[in-house]
């Protein structure tokens, strides 16, 4: 694949080859669409995917412009590493109100769009005729060291070696900084299982499995309280919200009769005694 | 040795003030010792001076070089000049001062803190001695301010009384006005004559233009007016009676208030050179002597009445000093006799107050000779001396002043004669109301004679008041004694001396008889329906009203205006700047919303502007 | 092919990225927008390298990628830290640093 890219790049250096405009228009449009998509997506995850699209297309444009090394790096570093990092963080942070597109700062959107439009038009006007010369032959520069990657390597380890070293220091520092920032200091000793059990029972609540709703009842929907063998209602069998809403089903005589019948059937209570009562 | 005269009381004052309550026990005795020592050294110096021939009597001792600015040619030594004039003052100050120290021992015995009182008295004596012993105006100025300070401290000695505190402040402020005159005079001397020492000024003034002597004369007169309570700066003296009575006797009768007379006599050469200045001095003296006498005749407060009398008597001295060489000697002579008889009368008044629970209202006195015979007799001697009955001291000094005034001009002569009559009237009034008339005491008052420490100084001073005039004028001793310093010209009055004496004594007799007739019966409460002259005199001839209208009100108005100006315009400007800044910031800070996106917005807008600018440049 | 077309494309993507920073409240999306802007810059670098016939532009783009990677690491760590304390990834929530 890399060889194919290099070949593509070499081919693009030939003035005669005319597929570059096609590539530019297709990839350029996709890049702009990706950027706009990022801007207007409701969900951050979608934004991230739109950005990935833009970056991929930019990578293609790099390659087309005789920068195969940068194109590959773009794919690896941005689409591969950076965007994945974004997605990881999105997983941690989750979805919240910040995804809403309703503007809260007064005038921000109006002025922002106005400034954006002015900036775009000014940049287009400015950059539209910045280069008076047509593109030179980059292949000459590449061929001195025997290729694009070798050429960049020669620059990085020759002319720009100091900057290179500095960026490496920057990366190390950034890695350390991220570690320290994301690190959460433990302020209390780790809880053991015994601790947790003690905590659980110290509250004094019922800790056994809760009776499921509708036990011994005609319905098994969640709003039907379970009945205990003596016919009384088990309060803990109903989920809290239903109790709070006050929509608990009432227990009527037929339910109780049913309970008795079932009990008799199981031989738990003698029917005669019940009748007397 | 001369310096020791000043150093003794100064040292004592320093010890008493710096060591504080630890010196309470022996403090008064130390003060009396210092004062006595000062007197003894002064007397010894006096004897030595007598033993020298006349030309060598004046000596100048340079203690050390005090101030020197070589670049400006300014050099002042801490030098003391002991001549006939200053030794006269030294003896008066230390003698009367010592007696009043002793008197205070009894008078202040019930006070909370006599030690502080004695410290201030010593401070005063030291400053006054420095004033009269200085050989230049700048050193004199130090003493001048020193006595002002001591006067302030002693008037306000009972500072818990608001009236005393106010009176002290008033005295200080009024004195400051005069002090300005003196300091301006000293500066003028240095600028014009290049020196501030007496000898250099005396020499320099001869060749100086007329305006110099006129300016200096008027400035020195202003200084004298402030210190000696002469018109128009007289208002503080009556209030100064808020201080303890020994203070009134020593500072506000015998010594400090006469510093103005000393200053004028000491600056004789300046005044001799300017007739206008001399006339101004005579006019001020005349006005003050009449004003003081009128005030003294209307006051029911014995001390204030005596204070008015002091003002009047100093008016005599100032007048005499303004007459030129014919008057200087008599001004000093009257100053010395006055120091004796006025001190004895003030001490007598203090003794009476001591006996009547510090009551000062003469309308509640009367019938005192039976219970306090020493006080009565000594006061009566002072009375005879001040109204000028021969052979008591006042007769000689005042008679000579009248002669000199008559030989100067008819109006000055008439004024002093009228003043003599007024003096007789008000002094008789005091004596009648205080001693002779029937008792009108408050219910719980039981008058008694004062202790020996109080009567003894009175007796000594009374002896002085009796004899000092006759001693000093015998064979013109005093004229010859002072002549080398002040010069002397025999007055040539238009009438014979015997005629003048007879006229004077008749005027005095009229005054005495008028007062006896007027006060044959004394009411316990001051009558209300009185002539406008009495009303005015009771209000110090509207001196305070005048000061208030001319100085205080405009000053307060200016202060008020400046205060409002400061608060509204100046503060308004400053606060306005502050409010502007806070207002702008309060609005600007609203732009700091804390929203990252707002900040990003400003960055993007800025970028857009930059790009547009770039575009314009490129186009 | 006129290289100015690439520059115009890069300008458009850059502006859309800027708009994303301005308009999206989710910190992660805002971050993506920043990445987008960096990529637009990279495209301009690559185009420049091609026009001038030199590899320096590509090297610069490489450095931009490295720095962007470092920035993403730190930025996401910060977002997680903020999320832990405020339970929200909204950039508007963290607005305490104001008047």
Automatic annotation (TrEMBL), chain C:
Annotated family: Belongs to the complex I subunit 4L family.
HAMAP family, per the entry: NDH1_NuoK (MF_01456)
PANTHER family referenced in this protein's UniProt entry, alphabetically: NADH DEHYDROGENASE SUBUNIT 4L-RELATED (PTHR11434:SF21), NADH-UBIQUINONE OXIDOREDUCTASE SUBUNIT ND4L (PTHR11434)
The entry's keywords: Membrane, NAD, Translocase, Transmembrane, Transmembrane helix, Transport
This protein's name: NADH dehydrogenase I subunit K
Record flagged with keyword Membrane: yes
Compartments it resides in: Membrane
TM segment ranges: 6-24, 36-53, 59-83
GO biological process entries: ATP synthesis coupled electron transport
Pfam families referenced in this protein's UniProt entry, alphabetically: Oxidored_q2 (PF00420)
GO cellular component: NADH dehydrogenase complex
MF terms in GO: oxidoreductase activity, acting on NAD(P)H
Family annotation (InterPro entries): NADH_UbQ_OxRdtase_chain4L/K (IPR001133), NUOK/Mnh_C1-like (IPR039428)
Membrane topology: Multi-pass membrane protein
């Amino acid at each position: 694949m890399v060889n194919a890219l290099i070949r593509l790049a070499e081919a693009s250096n030939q003035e005669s080859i005319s597929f570059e405009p096609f590539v530019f228009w297709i990839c350029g449009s996709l890049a702009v669409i990706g950027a706009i998509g990022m801007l207007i997506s409701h969900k951050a995850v979608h934004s991230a995917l739109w950005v990935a699209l833009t970056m991929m297309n930019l990578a293609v444009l790099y390659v087309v412009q005789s920068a195969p090394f940068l194109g590959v790096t773009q794919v690896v570093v941005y689409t591969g590493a950076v965007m994945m990092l974004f997605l990881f963080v999105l997983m941690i942070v989750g979805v919240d109100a910040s995804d809403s597109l309703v503007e809260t700062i007064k005038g921000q959107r109006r002025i922002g769009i106005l400034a954006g439009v002015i900036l775009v038009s000014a940049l287009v006007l400015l950059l539209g005729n910045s280069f008076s010369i047509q593109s030179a032959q980059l292949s000459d520069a590449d061929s001195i060291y025997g290729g694009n990657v070798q050429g960049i390597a020669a620059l990085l380890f020759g002319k720009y070696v100091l900057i290179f070293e500095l960026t490496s220091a920057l990366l190390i520092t950034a890695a350390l900084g991220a570690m320290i920032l994301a690190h959460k200091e433990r302020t209390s000793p780790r809880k053991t299982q015994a601790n947790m059990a003690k905590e659980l029972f110290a509250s004094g609540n019922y800790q056994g499995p809760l009776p499921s709703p509708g036990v011994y009842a005609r319905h098994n929907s969640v709003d039907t309280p379970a009945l205990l063998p003596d016919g009384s209602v088990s309060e803990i069998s109903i989920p809290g919200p239903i109790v709070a809403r006050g929509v608990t089903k009432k227990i009527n005589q037929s339910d109780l009769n049913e309970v008795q019948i079932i009990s008799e059937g199981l031989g738990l209570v003698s029917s005669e005694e019940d009748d007397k009562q | 040795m001369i310096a020791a005269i000043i150093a003794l009381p100064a040292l004592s004052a320093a010890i008493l003030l710096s060591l504080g309550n630890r010196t309470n026990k022996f403090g008064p005795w130390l003060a009396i010792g210092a004062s006595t020592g000062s007197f003894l050294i002064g007397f010894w110096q006096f004897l030595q001076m007598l033993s020298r021939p006349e030309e060598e009597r004046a000596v100048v001792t340079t203690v050390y070089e005090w101030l020197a600015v070589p670049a400006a040619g300014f050099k002042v030594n801490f030098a003391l000049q002991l001549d006939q004039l200053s030794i006269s003052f030294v003896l008066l100050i230390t003698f009367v001062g010592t007696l009043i120290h002793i008197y205070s021992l009894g008078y202040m015995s019930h006070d909370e803190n006599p030690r502080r009182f004695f410290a201030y008295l010593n401070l005063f004596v030291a400053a006054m001695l420095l004033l009269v012993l200085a050989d230049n105006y700048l050193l004199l100025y130090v003493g001048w301010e020193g006595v002002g300070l001591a006067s302030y401290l002693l008037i306000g000695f009972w500072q818990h009384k608001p009236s005393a505190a106010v009176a002290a402040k008033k005295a200080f402020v009024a004195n400051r006005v005069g002090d300005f005159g003196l300091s301006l005079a000293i500066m003028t001397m240095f600028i014009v004559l290049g020196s501030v020492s007496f000898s250099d000024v005396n020499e320099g003034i001869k060749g100086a233009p007329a305006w110099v002597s006129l300016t200096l004369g008027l400035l020195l007169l202003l200084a004298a007016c402030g210190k000696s309570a002469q018109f128009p700066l007289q208002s503080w003296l009556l209030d100064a009676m808020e201080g303890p009575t020994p203070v009134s006797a020593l500072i506000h009768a015998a010594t400090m208030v006469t510093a103005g007379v000393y200053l004028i006599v000491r600056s004789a050469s300046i005044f001799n050179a300017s007739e206008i200045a001399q006339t101004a001095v005579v006019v001020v003296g005349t006005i003050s002597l009449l004003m003081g006498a009128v005030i003294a005749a209307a006051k029911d407060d014995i001390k204030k009445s005596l204070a008015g009398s002091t003002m009047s008597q100093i008016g005599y001295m100032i007048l005499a000093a303004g007459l030129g060489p014919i008057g200087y000697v008599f001004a000093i002579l009257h100053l010395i006799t006055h120091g004796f008889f006025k001190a004895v009368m003030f001490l007598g008044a203090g003794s009476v107050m001591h006996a009547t629970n510090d009551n000062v209202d003469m309308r509640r006195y009367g019938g005192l000779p039976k219970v306090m015979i020493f006080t009565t007799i000594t006061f009566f001697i002072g009375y005879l001396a001040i109204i000028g009955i021969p052979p008591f001291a006042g007769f000689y000094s005042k008679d000579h002043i009248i002669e000199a005034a008559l030989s100067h001009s008819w109006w000055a002569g008439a004024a002093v004669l009228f003043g003599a009559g007024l003096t007789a009237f008000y002094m008789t009034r005091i004596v009648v109301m205080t001693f002779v008339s029937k008792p009108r005491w408050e219910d719980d008052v039981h008058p008694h004679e004062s202790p020996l420490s109080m009567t003894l100084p009175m007796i000594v001073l009374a002896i002085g008041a009796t004899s000092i005039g006759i001693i000093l004028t015998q064979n013109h001793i005093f004229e010859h004694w002072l002549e080398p310093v002040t010069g002397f010209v025999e007055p040539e009055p238009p009438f014979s001396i015997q005629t003048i004496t007879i006229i004077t004594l008749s005027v005095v007799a009229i005054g005495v008889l008028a007062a006896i007739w007027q006060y044959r019966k004394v009411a316990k409460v001051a009558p209300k329906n009185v002539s406008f002259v009495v009303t005015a005199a009771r209000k110090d001839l509207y001196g305070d009203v005048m000061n208030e209208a001319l100085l205080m009100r405009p000053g307060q108005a200016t202060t008020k205006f400046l205060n409002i100006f400061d608060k509204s315009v100046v503060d308004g400007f400053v606060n306005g700047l502050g409010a502007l800044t806070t207002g702008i910031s309060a609005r600007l800070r609203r732009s700091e919303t804390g929203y990252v996106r707002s900040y990003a917005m400003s960055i993007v807008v800025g970028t857009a502007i930059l790009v547009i600018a770039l575009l314009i440049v490129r186009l | 092919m006129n290289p100015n077309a690439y520059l115009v494309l890069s300008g458009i993507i850059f502006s859309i990225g800027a708009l994303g920073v301005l308009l999206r409240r989710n910190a992660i999306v805002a971050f993506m927008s920043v990445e987008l802007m960096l990529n637009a810059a990279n495209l301009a670098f690559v185009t420049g390298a091609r026009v001038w016939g030199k590899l320096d532009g590509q090297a610069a783009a490489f450095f931009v990628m490295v720095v962007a990677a470092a920035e993403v690491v730190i930025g996401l760590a910060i977002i997680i830290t903020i999320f832990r304390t405020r339970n929200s990834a909204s950039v508007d929530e963290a607005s305490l640093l104001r008047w």
